[in-house]
Amino acid sequence: MRILLFFSLLILISCRPSNRTVEDPPTEKNQLAELPDTLPPEKTIIKKEVIIDYDSNVWTDIHIMDSSILMDIRYATPFNFVEEKMYDCGRCFLRKEVAEKISLIHKELQKEGLGLKMFDCYRPRPIQWKLWEKVPDPRYVADPRKGSMHNRGSAIDLTIVDTQGNELDMGTAFDYFGREAYHSYTGHSPAILDNRKKLKGIMEKNGFRPTSTEWWHYSYRLKRYELSDWLWECE
């Protein structure tokens, strides 16, 4: 009898609810609470917005078309033959077909580890008048009454550069007015003459014509365009 009573008490004790607390399984809320107060920010890729502030059916901004073409727009600085800033800002616009040819030439030169640098592109006719007032010499500045190929967006002043952006030696600086800049001048070293020949050859192959007095100047001859007084915007 005592044994039976003992086992009965033992069963009752084992059935009593335990005072020990059991942790709840982690919920989504609990898991979030365990995260750090601050999370590392996600990487954000910011793309520079390209603003087309011109009629893209008429003009092409060379730098937007191919940013690997170097720009040294001299008339946006005082480092030119009139020693005066002519453009409010340096931008290189050309007619669409002309720009496409320039990009093609640049890509062809890149295969040799070379490329193009632009000194001047489209030149608004109001700027042509300012240059004419400074230098009224048709050998170097076209009479604005007739206009130049620059005023039509079909002429460029340019040179060739190496992979470091260094200009190939062409014998004279850009805008040098003298016999040494003429294509007919043969007094330069063979290396300089070869550099000029390379520029002239690739430009002529793609439809451009040189001017006799300036090794840097080429005009597109496969299509004629209207003169333009349009002035581009500056930021």
Record the SSE blueprint.
Blueprint: H1 2-15, H2 28-33, E1 59-61, H3 62-65, E2 70-71, E3 93-95, H4 96-110, E4 114-120, H5 125-134, E5 155-162, H6 190-205, E6 208-211, E7 214-220
Describe the structure.
The protein has a domain at 68-220: Muramoyl-pentapeptide Carboxypeptidase, domain 2. 28% of the residues lie in helices and 14% in strands. The chain contains six helices and seven strands; from the N terminus they run H-H-E-H-E-E-H-E-H-E-H-E-E. The chain has a five-stranded mixed sheet with strand order 2-4-5-7-6, with helices on one face. It has a two-stranded antiparallel sheet with strand order 1-3. Strand 6 (208-211) and strand 7 (214-220) form a beta hairpin.
